[in-house]
Write a structure and sequence with these properties.
This protein has about 290 residues and is of the alpha/beta class. It is about 45% helix and about 15% strand.
């Protein structure tokens, strides 16, 4: 079975909060905001005093309560404590966090939080889990039609939050194969690419991370059909995620997911080995 738009994109913080992007997400955030306001009034706190206790301005508290901004999970926990909510606000954390992502990426974001292994093949841009903030901003600024500034900020902070996958306890095994062309595009300029290459070299040193490059002169490439991700959940179930433009599919059929995993294995064997790939990136960085 293939699950489409209702599942989720690779776009994707902290700060003062994020803006919800779709109708369903706005409904969730609005309901959370009303609950927050009700509990605040119950405690007899005005917005300024409550904001001072959780580390935000009265204006930001108003944005949370009116559903115009999405608080971080840590902010929700702090608000629950300050308002003596007994965990009521914390019950909203998962739904509110999901609302920060484009609707077509919400399913994949959930899988990232409960995966044993992620295997990713990319052909156009550096995978979102590996992007620097500067690289993210460069990509999002190039979108046509242009994204609103608030949407760019929300997607940057959401994507940065996803990168805690590298440091969480029981971090999954992460495999990245990317076409050489991905690392030659100077999106945002030379300085942005230099910073991105330095970041890849750093992340590539982690024991649970393997980064490989598919060279331009490779005569065989089993990934000519485009980028995709194979996800293995902790219960062993596999999924295949792929996106195009503003839509995505999440394949769950066992035969198709097994074939995709096998295809990724072939792609990995055709690409440069991880040590060779690191040396390749070092050389590319030196040439900038």
């Amino acid at each position: 079975m293939s699950l489409g738009d209702g599942w989720e994109s690779d776009e994707g913080g902290a700060g003062s909060g994020r803006r919800p992007e779709d109708g369903a997400a706005k409904g969730v955030v609005a309901a959370f905001g009303q609950t927050l306001k009700t509990l605040r009034l119950r405690e007899g706190l005005d917005r300024a005093e409550f904001g001072n206790r959780i580390g935000y301005s009265a204006a930001t508290v108003a944005s949370f309560e009116q559903g115009r901004r999405i608080p971080s999970p840590r902010t929700i926990e702090r608000a629950d404590e300050v308002l003596a909510a007994g965990g009521l606000l914390c019950l909203w954390k998962e739904e509110v966090e999901r609302a920060q992502y484009p609707v077509f990426f919400q399913g994949m974001a959930a899988l990232e939080k409960d995966c044993l292994e992620l295997l990713m093949y990319d052909t156009h841009v550096v995978n979102g889990l590996l992007q620097t903030e500067e690289y993210m901003r460069a990509l999002l600024a190039m979108r046509r039609p242009a994204l609103k500034r608030e949407t760019i900020e929300q997607r940057v902070t959401a994507r940065l939050a996803r990168q805690d996958i590298f440091t969480r306890q029981s971090a999954p095994l992460l495999g990245f194969v990317m076409d050489e062309a991905v690392l030659r595009h100077r999106y945002g300029g030379t300085a942005v690419l230099r910073g991105q290459l330095e970041h890849l070299l750093l992340v590539g040193q982690d024991q649970n991370v393997e980064i490989q490059i598919m060279p331009l002169d490779c005569e065989d490439n089993a990934g000519v059909n485009g980028p995709f991700t194979v996800v293995t959940r902790r219960d062993g179930k596999k999924f295949v995620y792929a996106e195009t433009h503003a839509t995505s599919t999440l394949e769950t059929d066992p035969e198709q997911t097994s074939l995709a995993a096998a295809r990724y294995g072939i792609i990995r064997s055709q690409a440069l080995a991880s040590r060779e790939s690191m040396r390749f990136m070092e050389g590319l960085l030196a040439s900038l």
